[in-house]
User: Which sequence fits this backbone?
């Protein structure tokens, strides 16, 4: 058991090769698009809106298509069915998400500089946690908007949940919801970190296995 713990510690603290470090650096750079590109996009089509109503969700703001006019039109439609207006001040995520993304980039840079397997593992674990929490938060927000309907709304509709991914028919609207360029950059971050960890494990394991067994050891 002692020998196993020693090898595990040696594996986690061993320096990795150049390729895993470069991949960690790439992961840090891939965070940059999340500040300039939307993370998610929702588009609504109906007979009276042939060009659709577009809503882009960034890490820090909402942006409607047609120079913001689409967001105003969406909120007008929401009023008729009792949904709350989509307002940036109601999205607490916009207050902390940019800082969290910046923190992730620093964690990835640290892994690239320190170059230990443990740092790569920490990076992937933290990224996975933030990603899963963000998806849950987004899904909960969609659920809340579709279920917290004003009882005195002019048009009565049953509670619903806008699609988180894919398309759905809501009244006479066909709603499409898909990741934006910023989210694809984050998917690439996960791939880069996973590849860095796998390559790091392969390289360091060969060196750790080759370590000499201390005299009197098991």
Assistant:
């Amino acid at each position: 058991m002692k020998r196993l713990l020693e090898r595990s510690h040696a594996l986690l603290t061993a320096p990795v090769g150049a390729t895993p470090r470069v991949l960690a650096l790439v992961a840090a750079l891939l965070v940059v698009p999340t500040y300039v590109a939307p993370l998610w996009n929702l588009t609504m089509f109906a007979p009276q809106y042939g060009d659709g109503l577009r809503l882009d969700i960034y890490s820090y703001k909402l942006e409607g298509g047609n120079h913001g006019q689409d967001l105003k039109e969406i909120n007008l439609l929401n009023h008729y069915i009792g949904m709350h207006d989509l307002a940036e001040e109601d999205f607490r995520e916009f207050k902390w998400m940019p800082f969290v993304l910046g923190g992730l980039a620093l964690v990835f840079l640290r892994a690239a500089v320190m170059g230990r397997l443990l740092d790569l593992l920490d990076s992937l674990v933290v990224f996975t946690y933030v990603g899963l929490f963000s998806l849950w938060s987004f899904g909960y927000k969609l659920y809340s908007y579709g279920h917290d309907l004003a009882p005195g709304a002019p048009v009565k509709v049953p509670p619903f949940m806008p699609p988180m991914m894919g398309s759905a028919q809501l009244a006479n609207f066909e709603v499409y919801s898909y990741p934006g360029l910023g989210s694809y950059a984050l998917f690439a971050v996960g791939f880069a970190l996973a590849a860095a960890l796998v390559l790091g494990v392969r390289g360091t394991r060969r060196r750790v296995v080759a370590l000499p067994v201390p005299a009197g050891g098991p």
Strands lie at 40-46, 49-57, 62-64, 166-170, 173-179. The chain has one domain: 2-209. The longest strand covers residues 49-57.
